[in-house]
Amino acid sequence: MALVEIFPDPFLIQVEFFLLAGAAPRYLCTYYDVIEYLNISSYSKLHAHILPKTDLKEPVEVKMDFMLVAILSVVEKLQTVTFYIVLNLEWENTFVTWDPQDFCNISEIVLPTDTYWSPTIFILERVNGQNSNLDYMAITHNGSFKSTQPFQVTLTCSLMIFKFPFDTQTCNLSVASFLYPVTDLVMKTKRTPAEMMKDSQSYFLTDGEWKFTNLSIIEYREELDDEKFSVVTYVISMERRPTLYILNLILPTCALYLLDMAVLFGPSSLEEKISFQIAIILGSSMLAVILNNILPTSSNKPPIIVVFFLGTFLLMIMAVLDTFFLLHQQHKSLRLDKVLGSFQQDTEQAMRAMTKQTTKHLAKGGAQLLNLPKKAQENRQPAKPHWKPQEQDPFLLVLEKVLLYSHFFLSLFFFATISVKWSS
User: Fold this and answer.
1) How far apart are CA 167 and CA 161, in angstroms?
2) CA nearest 281: which of 256, 263, 247, 262?
3) Which of 1-15, 35-49, 261-275 is modeled with the greatest confidence?
4) Dist CA 277 CA 37 (whole Å)
5) CB under 8 Å to 59, separation ≥6 — which residues?
6) 115: which of 111, 164, 178, 245 fits an S-S bond (Cβ 3.0–4.6 Å)?
7) Average pLDDT score over the chain
8) Please, what is the end-to-end C-alpha distance for the chain in angstroms?
9) CB 149 within 8 A of CB 65
10) What is the pLDDT of residues 208-246, one digit of tens each?
11) Is the pTM of this model over 0.85?
12) How many Å separate Cα 43 from the centre of its chain?
């Protein structure tokens, strides 16, 4: 009876055996002793698939902790996002307990995941990815299980690129276990979204195009085949860093358009302006090809940057058409000058011929005309026409100014509208 009072139950048999054998008692101070006590080796593999539920009315509660480690890629054309995440799962199995004092204060052991039951996780939006290679879980003496599972997962996400490259995207990552209804298993979050986001930002590895901005959690029950299943959705918000696109797409397009306006208002001839403007349009079309390789082929609304490129392209074409119109009016005015000049020459020749004939006729008719003063003779000479061809038609000057300034104010209105849409 004294031995029973001094030693705990697990020690009793071995101590009595060693006392009867005349040897010193062996203390249970290894992990193998804990495993032997739990009698894992004698269990069949079936127990690893049985839900550890003691009360039929109370479901097993699985607490989850989420951490976003990296945003690996965002493919706008495929509408997919690749994350590197870590899920920490905790649950209780009351069939697996021991007293740490019986085993030299061993309170936790690590075993393979297939040793006991563990929740099967489904990610609803997943289209591709790599499963976790960490197939171990930590078991504490009170029956608490902890499992850490890292995932590289590719999710389908509805990317709204209307404000590209100043856009903010929101993607869902829904975790569920559709093997057990809510009467058997309930999934809950362990911490608040603010705490999870703080840890995620402290361990965030990538500093690329996307910035992790916010995390929210939605817990709900999904009904499927007349049964309800517990689902936890992590809503991940991320913001694009637009610096690269501003430097590679937007600023070069604005620079080309400013160059086009400088050519339009410049002192060059109209023929030279047209050649410069066509070269600028070809340069802007190359930037449009780069943009086409980035954006998806279909969307509900055209992105603002597409409207920006298309509007800039149309304004450049309008500038070319304005120059062509001015060139046409200039050639038309030159043809009119040529017609008027030829008409003047014909009139002068006719007047000279008439003067000669009149002089001959008067010379034969009498000598009185010969005695006329020189002044009278000079007055009888045919007068020269007063029309002179002008160097440039004033109508063309007014038309050119109207076209240029209307084009300038239309450009200001367009760029102001684009800026307001991007900033709203």
Assistant:
1) 6
2) 256
3) 261-275
4) 87
5) 53, 180, 182, 183, 184, 185, 186
6) 111
7) 79
8) 83
9) no
10) 889 999 999 999 998 888 889 999 999 999 999 999 899
11) no
12) 53
